[in-house]
Description:
The protein has helices spanning about 5-30, 35-45, 50-70, 80-100, 110-130, 140-150, 155-160, 165-175, 185-205, 205-210. By secondary structure, the chain is mainly α. The two termini are about 30 Å apart.
Amino acid sequence: MAKRELTARYLFFIAGLFVNAFGISLIIKANLGSSPISSLPYTLSLKFPVTLGQFTLLLNALLIAGQVCLLKKDFKKEQFLQIPVALLFSFFIDCSMALLAGYTPAGYAAQILSLVAGCAILGLGVSMEVIANVVMLSGEAFVKAITLRTGKEFGITKIGFDTLALLACAASLLLAGTIEGVREGTIIAALIVGLFARFFNRRLGFINKMITFAPDKTPIQPYEDNRNHRTGGN
């Protein structure tokens, strides 16, 4: 892959990472729960003086460590790119939460609209990351590591991984005696984010052509082709 193309793809990926983080933050600001993979960090952030982004970074660090344990020698050096991506993603989440600090939808209808808008933005961010095709986020990479070890289908394993929301419920019950951070919005996000991602995948395919350049004299290989392993959920 040409250096110019790789640079374009990483810039597009970083933009998608911010869109992804902003979508997650908007879902949370709807106050109807969070996206499944963010449910545990969000629930913990409600009870500890640690930001959502910082807990997200901790979760991603655990997921990367889990991949190392699962894959062992099959864990490629390129996969350590997940570390700076996790740092950037966590920073973007905290920035997005700060940008939306004064936003509070009034009434249930406004909350639903904010939730759906957040899911659409999150789906767009996921689609941008898929089109960029350079690095997988730690959650998806961890699911892929499980599929490589178990032989299970990625989509089925991803659904099982989304039960992370159950851990969030358990943590909330343990810490607060009630369920916080997991509501109907969590279920809605699990169901429709993937649909939005597929919608944008079909309509943004032209971008892949725009950021594809002829190879130069020093070709560089991307992290790996992720498109066959993405399901669009977050």
